[in-house]
TrEMBL record:
Highest taxon of source: Bacteria
One example GO MF annotation: 2-dehydropantoate 2-reductase activity
UniProt organism field: Elioraea tepida
Domain Ketopantoate reductase N-terminal: 6-155
Ketopantoate reductase C-terminal domain ranges (all copies): 181-323
A GO cellular-component term linked to this record: cytoplasm
Name used for this protein in its record: 2-dehydropantoate 2-reductase
EC numbers: 1.1.1.169
Enzyme class, UniProt record, top EC level: oxidoreductase
């Protein structure tokens, strides 16, 4: 049921999908994005924002603005920008956030740790999303498959506003859930996300790369490095869509890790989104990725606990080389990373 107006800051793959479903359900949604042609398309009668793909096909129109054009204040702000734009976007949206409102981070990475110091921890809420979506062009988003949608307070409490937010998000995905452990989901996604960064250095699809037996040492090594850091942080990582954190924790068996990888392959085989957003950043949009905002913090936190993350560090360097045009995107990159595990 419609309630407070919602400001969706970042109308790309995640923000465009979430916002479009909310508009379709009758909610008062305003979009903000930095791509002017996309903004004009969303607001244009007869054009609008189109959701394409096997999950749903529909179009909506809604108010949409560039950041410099926006006026007004909202109690609910959904932040959906790439992780490395979090600080700038949060600073820009701050004048539009009500004193009793909140910012919901619908992003990958530990972006809540960036948002909270700017807007206040009490005005920050966490979310984890794992559905597949891609921004295809102005006014068009591919919704490739459904995936986990999880909402939580940073301190784990089940509050009234979390219950209200969950009710709202059921209009986006009727399988959305609340959690008392949002950090557990975010760290789980970091482990899976490390695998997606590795996949993005080559050309094979997510499912194809995960299913390649020559690359199993790579997936095992990345999962173990991230889960070791999560454990050092005192975080109990959560599973989702085939990812089983227990398989990659200290003491996890290779058999369990292979079963988890197989489940992730099965999940991704059903998606119309064949390659990761990281891969699209590198291969299609020719822009820098979120690697410094997602994987580098894992290495930084690891060093704080006296842990080494050699595989993640090598992967970060490899992504930078591709971003700078100093390394081609080939499947040989994945074999090189896998070779580091075996060495």
């Amino acid at each position: 049921m419609p309630g407070d107006p919602i400001l969706v800051w970042g109308a790309g793959a995640i923000g465009g999908t979430v916002g479009a479903f909310l508009v379709r359900a009758g909610h008062d949604v305003t979009f903000v994005d930095i791509v002017e042609e996309h903004v004009r398309a969303i607001a244009a009668p007869g054009r609008g924002l189109a959701i394409r793909g096997p999950v749903a096909e529909f179009s909506v129109t809604a108010p949409a603005f560039l950041p410099s054009e926006l006026t007004g204040v909202w109690r609910k702000v959904f932040l959906c920008v790439k992780a490395h734009h979090t600080q700038a976007a949060t600073t820009a949206l701050l004048p539009h956030l009500a004193s009793d409102g909140y910012v919901l981070s619908l992003q990958n990475g530990l972006c809540e740790t960036v948002i909270a110091p700017i807007v206040g921890r009490e005005r920050t809420m966490g979310a984890f999303v794992n559905f597949g979506a891609d921004w295809m062009g102005p006014g068009e988003v591919l919704y490739g498959n459904r995936g986990a949608v999880v909402l939580g307070e940073l301190d784990g409490r089940i509050t009234g506003r979390l219950v209200s937010l969950h009710r709202l998000m059921l209009d986006v995905d009727d399988r959305a859930v609340m959690t008392d452990n949002i950090w557990g989901y975010l760290w789980g996604k970091l482990a899976y996300g490390a695998m997606l960064f590795a996949q993005a250095t080559g050309q094979d699809s997510i499912a194809g790369a995960l299913a390649n037996p020559s690359l199993f040492p790579l997936w095992l090594g990345l999962g173990r490095e991230v889960m070791a850091v999560a454990a050092a942080e005192g975080v109990r990582a959560e599973g989702f869509n085939g990812f089983d954190p227990d398989a990659f924790r200290p003491g996890g068996t290779e058999a369990a890790a292979k079963a988890s990888i197989a489940a992730m392959v099965a999940f991704n085989r059903t998606s119309a989104k064949t390659h990761s957003g990281v891969w699209r950043d590198l291969a299609v949009r020719k822009r820098r990725t979120e690697v410094d905002a997602q994987l580098v913090p894992v290495s930084v936190i690891a060093r704080r606990h006296g842990l080494a993350t050699p595989l993640i560090d090598h992967l970060v360097a490899m992504i930078h080389e591709i971003e700078d045009g100093r390394r081609p995107m080939t499947d040989a990159n994945l074999l090189e990373l896998a070779g580091l595990v075996a060495a």
